[in-house]
Design brief:
mainly beta
Length: 129
């Protein structure tokens, strides 16, 4: 486990890149909950977490009558190299849900933000948006 900063260093709606066991990890604060993702896009290894901000995405599904609608606001990060989008809480690629990034456990101990070396859990199974 690695202390990567103080809770105040990760305001809600922001993220920053930290180093854990020699690997770059993006730590995101979404709705007051912290998530960690490997800073490496599955497409061509781009610096995924170097994206300036998180956003949402357009989805169209049977629930919306196949009309595009904005969803997942503040939960999506797009690779700055080619725009491939990932859902931060699950690590899933939105275009190819069978692809998932390595996630890291991020917890708060007192005021310290602590990231485990590597998540022991696998991303959840892909499901419809």
């Amino acid at each position: 486990m690695t202390v990567v900063g103080r809770l105040a260093d990760f305001p809600e709606g922001t993220h920053r890149i930290v180093t854990v066991d020699g690997r770059e990890v993006g730590v995101f604060n979404i709705g007051g909950r912290l998530y960690g993702l490997l800073n490496r896009c599955a497409h061509q290894g781009g610096p995924l977490c170097a994206a300036r901000r998180t956003t949402g995405t357009l989805v169209a599904d049977a629930d919306s009558g196949w009309q595009p609608r904005w969803a997942l606001e503040g939960e999506v990060v797009a690779c700055p190299w080619h725009g491939l989008e990932y859902h931060v809480p699950t690590g899933r690629c939105l275009a190819f849900p069978e692809i998932a990034l390595r996630r890291y456990d991020v917890v708060v101990h007192g005021d310290d933000v602590v990231v485990s070396p590597a998540s022991s859990h696998r991303p959840p199974a892909a499901s419809g948006r």
